[in-house]
Specification:
mainly beta
């Protein structure tokens, strides 16, 4: 997963600075995954990525915000508005 915002740039989890550079999967071979990260207070763009050995596949991208559930390509993403600021 990558999150991008005009003021803070891009953050990819578990590591990386763009979709192509994510090397390890947070939840290998799974249709569900949970991430925890600081996220912007206003709308941001999220990228959902299938990490593969040869080339990562972009599952989808789209704008979302805290407290929302968003369709991002072939994925549904829920962003918690709790203090922990989790998204999955």
């Amino acid at each position: 997963m990558c999150v991008t915002h005009s003021l803070v740039g891009i953050l990819c989890l578990p590591e990386g600075d763009r979709v192509e550079t994510i090397m390890t999967a947070e939840c290998a071979n799974s249709y569900k995954c949970r991430f925890s990260s600081e996220i912007p207070d206003d709308s941001f763009k999220i990228y959902v990525v299938d990490v593969d050995a040869t080339m990562n596949d972009l599952i989808g991208s789209g704008h979302c915000a805290k407290g929302k559930t968003c369709d991002v390509g072939q994925a549904t993403v829920s962003i918690s508005d709790s203090e922990k600021k989790s998204c999955w």
